[in-house]
Write a structure and sequence with these properties.
The chain has about 300 residues and is of the alpha/beta class. It has a single domain, classed as Rossmann fold, CATH 3.40.50.300. The protein is about 35% helix and about 20% strand. The chain has nine helices and ten strands. The chain has a six-stranded mixed beta sheet, with helices on both faces. α2 runs parallel beside α4 and α7 crosses α8. The longest helix has 16 residues. The N terminus is likely disordered.
Length: about 300
């Protein structure tokens, strides 16, 4: 790995996040480096989703700071560099009446990417995910796996440096999940930073070269799978996880209704624009677009 690839791209500095009396994260510090594929592992209510939302600037820390560091070493608030981020939420947020390509194109245009460039990139990735024949189909009626693949292509369409994936293989069959994991590994080899949130320890061990364990809002471990197993004298990563998270998991209600988050994300990614109107055109000739909502699939 070249020296440039090892430089910090995102720094989480003593970050805490509270919602009223509920402290979702407490004093978390992490440095993420270019080319890292990082597994973010934890149970329900651990704080993984809150951390992801802080990493992409949707939440502001109650304490501490999340800072993006460019290739020249200059620091910027993460909220100012969202064009360098790609996000694949657990719920894809596709516009159901648009084709897969129109969803992708809408997002690309919002990021200033020419249609031809976006199409070439989308088609190349779609071939790796075995979905190239479905790009011109409306996403209404897509299987969960096809929606996940479309959302992944959409997140990569503007060529981001940093990719945040929330349960990217959820709902995928074995073959599709393998293709997604292979693509993630390739992205890491290309020098991109990938944050791979999952509760599947075997998947994290296979895909990621670094594992971050979050439990009850605190950082419990950060290292390679072999490091974590060595520190806990555990034969498997699963055993290491159990040892590091022995205290009972807290019961935390969702601090914010999902609908509010979905609405906020939609406003953020469309920058105040309305979603595109129905279009019967496809390919590069149409003037429609694609969306990047985080909520569930929508007919809007």
């Amino acid at each position: 790995m070249t020296p440039t690839m090892t430089r910090t791209i995102l720094s989480v500095r003593s970050v805490s996040k509270s919602f009223g009396e509920v402290q979702a994260l407490k004093d978390v510090s992490i440095d993420l480096h270019r080319g890292d594929v990082v597994g973010l592992v934890g149970g329900n209510g651990a704080g993984k989703t809150t951390l992801l939302r802080l990493l992409c600037g949707l939440y502001k820390p109650s304490e501490g700071a999340v800072v993006h560091i460019d290739s020249s070493g200059n620091e910027h608030p993460v909220s100012e560099v969202r064009s360098n981020l790609g996000v694949v939420p657990e719920s894809t947020g596709l516009y159901a009446r648009l084709t897969a390509w129109e969803n992708i194109r809408y997002h690309s245009r919002l990021n200033g990417i020419p249609d031809k460039q976006a199409w070439n990139r989308a088609y190349r990735i779609s071939r790796e995910l075995d979905i190239e024949d479905d790009l011109q189909r409306p996403t209404r009626g897509f299987s969960r796996g096809m929606r996940q693949k479309t959302a992944l292509i959409r997140a990569l369409s503007h060529d981001p440096e940093l990719l945040l994936l929330d349960e990217p293989t959820g709902g995928l069959d074995v073959t599709s999940a393998r293709k997604v994991r292979a693509l993630v590994r390739k992205l890491g080899e290309e020098g991109r930073t990938v944050i791979y949130s999952t509760h599947k320890l075997n998947e994290a061990e296979e895909v990621c070269d670094r594992i971050i364990i979050i439990h009850n809002g605190t950082l419990r471990a950060d290292g390679t799978p072999s490091d974590l197993m060595g520190k806990t004298d555990a034969p498997t990563l699963e055993e290491a996880f159990v040892i590091l998270t022995q205290d009972a998991s807290r019961e935390v209600e969702t601090p914010e209704p999902a609908s509010k988050f979905q609405q906020f994300w939609a406003r953020l990614t469309t920058r105040g624009r309305n979603p595109p109107s129905d279009s019967h055109e496809s390919g590069l000739e149409s003037n429609g677009g694609s969306s990047d909502g985080v909520g569930g699939d929508t007919d809007a």
